[in-house]
Amino acid sequence: MSETLDQLVNVGLKLLDDANNPSEAHSEHEYWVQDVNRWLQEISPDSGLSAEWAAFGSSPLVYGGAYYDDPRAWVSHLSLIRRRLKWLSEKGPSAVLKSHNENVKRVIAKLTALRKNVASRVDFAWPDLHYHANLTLEFLQRYEKLRDEVTKLQPDLYSDLPRRDLPENPETTADGQIAGHIPSYYLKTLLEDIDYILEIHSQLGEHGASSVSKQLEQIRGESVPWDVFISHASEDKAAVAEPLTNALMDVGLMVWYDTIELKIGDSLRGSIDKGLRESRFGVIILSPAFFGKHWPTLELNGLAQKEVNGEKVILPVWYNIGVDDVRSQSPLLADRVAAQWATGIESVVASLLKVIQPTTVHNKPAHSTLPPDPFKELAMTSPKTAMMETWNKLVSAISDAAKRSQPPGEIAEPMTPSEIVNQLFQAAEISDENREEFFRLKKWHDSTALWHVHQEPKDALGFAELTNELVRVFSAI
């Protein structure tokens, strides 16, 4: 096998640090993706892992043949690499271990068959018997290959196996045949070595200790933290959380994308603990809505236990709340210096940056010649939301087309978008290609909205491009 799992993980980690420009970063990412895919197909064919790996998509630095060299595109690109690394650290070890165990089973089966073959053809009642060299050398050479293979697979178990010297080849006859015999004790030694291997395998069972298992545990520990996650009440999402997320991404910080929304019934401790496990810092937006969740003061104060050795990891931002309100809920947080949303988002970001330093160097200003695109920004920060907004535009265009196609004065029966599309097709208002494209996009939309299928910024942009074409079709009716 050309690459190992730890080598592939290291390449991915290196991509987080070595990106220079969009073209090079995109190319290096695609080379890495192809190498991992080849490795998965080699080590675990027909497992479906290659399809899962491919489903992450391409780097959002490139779309439609254009390169996007702006902070949010870089953040999206790096977050894609992080998600791939997380997947690889979870799925890769299990694939390696499965392949390893299958290889061990294969070698053990071959050794068992070889032992049975030797035992059935050699009589050890007479230790001084000599057997034809052809048979003896064949057995010994086959065993030597299997011994080397099992030692390589499980060196911690079989590294003590002796390397036996093969008997010298007897002289050959004129026609090339071996004309000699070899003492039977060579074959008896071979059986003793095989029995030693099989006994260890039997005692340990299929799931015995393996050096591969120990090595793979180290790969699971590989992690690259996000710079910051943002915890907020859902009521503060639009006013504070989203603009703050965008502003922090604009300066190149890796922000936890799926911002944690605290809803009734959620565990505050569990939500924040999860975010802090994945991030170096946690920004908590303290507001009346946040404290209105009726979380116990004890639970909130318990967050301070995260800050071991005096290290600051929890960074509060106050929104429409005063010191007395915070002190009544959490005296520890009330005594902490906090950023005040009322001073403006620029001031809040500057305060946070004094503590948070990006783990990468991609906080460079945008110098793209393209004009600002609000939809592209939304696709970068929230691909699913961007897709839903585009779909709603299409549904509205279909509904308007149905109204225009009705005879004047006739009251139309309520219909679903699918029913309207079929009716317009039957009336020859749209082509069969338009209809099929609608239902294909509907499946895409439904899988995202109903089954929570993960989407990348690239997916949202592609969905919008196809959907907008249909919007133009239905708007022309």
Structural summary, described in words:
59% of the residues lie in helices and 8% in strands. The protein has helices at 5-18, 22-43, 49-54, 71-121, 133-153, 155-158, 185-204, 211-220, 237-250, 268-278, 288-291, 297-301, 323-329, 331-334, 345-353, 374-381, 383-405, 417-426, 432-449, 457-475; strands at 62-63, 66-67, 130-132, 181-183, 226-233, 260-262, 279-286, 314-318, 339-340. The protein starts with a helix and ends with a helix. Helix 4 (71-121) packs across helix 7 (185-204) and helix 5 runs parallel beside helix 7 (185-204). It contains 20 helices and nine strands. The protein is an alpha/beta fold. Helix 9 (237-250) links the parallel strand 5 and strand 6. It folds into three domains: 1-224, no CATH class; 226-353, Toll/interleukin-1 receptor homology (TIR) domain (Rossmann fold), CATH 3.40.50.10140; 374-475, Four Helix Bundle (Hemerythrin (Met), subunit A) (Up-down Bundle).
